[in-house]
Amino acid sequence: xxxxxxxxxxxxxxACAHSGVVSIGPDTYMIANSEWGFxxxxxxxxxxxxxxxxxCNSIGKKMLPISTHENDLEFGKTPAAEVQFRCLSSDDPExxxxxxxxxxxxVIENRNKQPQ
Length: 116
Description:
This protein is of the alpha+beta class. It contains two helices and five strands, in the order H-E-E-E-H-E-E.
């Protein structure tokens, strides 16, 4: 009985969900990954970024990240990450240094008019 409990605990601690490469538009893809256990959103992000780069390299192109999102282990959440990216030819003018900006969880709009 103890062996069954320990095996079940090990499975729960290493459970994960992985989307693989999903096409979301012309030359545009996404990958999502979550993994329960002692890891972080940053580690998950590194894994999906590497997978994205490997995928683009396998089709003879370069990876350009469009957006990323990750969350760390919190109550009710597992460490997870998602990357949206493009696979572009090395001579494509859109292939430039990425400028990833964090996406805010909340946007506050000030609707008060300022005196001029």
